[in-house]
Design brief:
Elements: E1 3-4, E2 29-33, E3 38-45, E4 53-55
Antiparallel strand pairs: 1-2, 2-3, 3-4
Length: 56
């Protein structure tokens, strides 16, 4: 694991002005499997937006 900023918050339950949106960024989680050289990178696009979606 390179980094983990992923939080267990359901974005469907947040109001548009909720400060929790600041936790939804382009760099949420990055996993690397050394033997197979595979990287999984998870983020929220666009950053801090209630209209965003998870992106990997």
């Amino acid at each position: 694991m390179n980094y983990n900023h992923f939080v267990e918050i359901d974005p469907r339950t947040l109001e548009a002005n909720d400060d929790s949106w600041f936790l939804f960024t382009d760099s949420l989680l990055q996993l690397y499997h050394e033997q197979s050289s595979i990287t999984l990178d998870l983020g929220w696009v666009p950053d801090i937006s209630p209209e965003g979606n998870y992106w990997f």
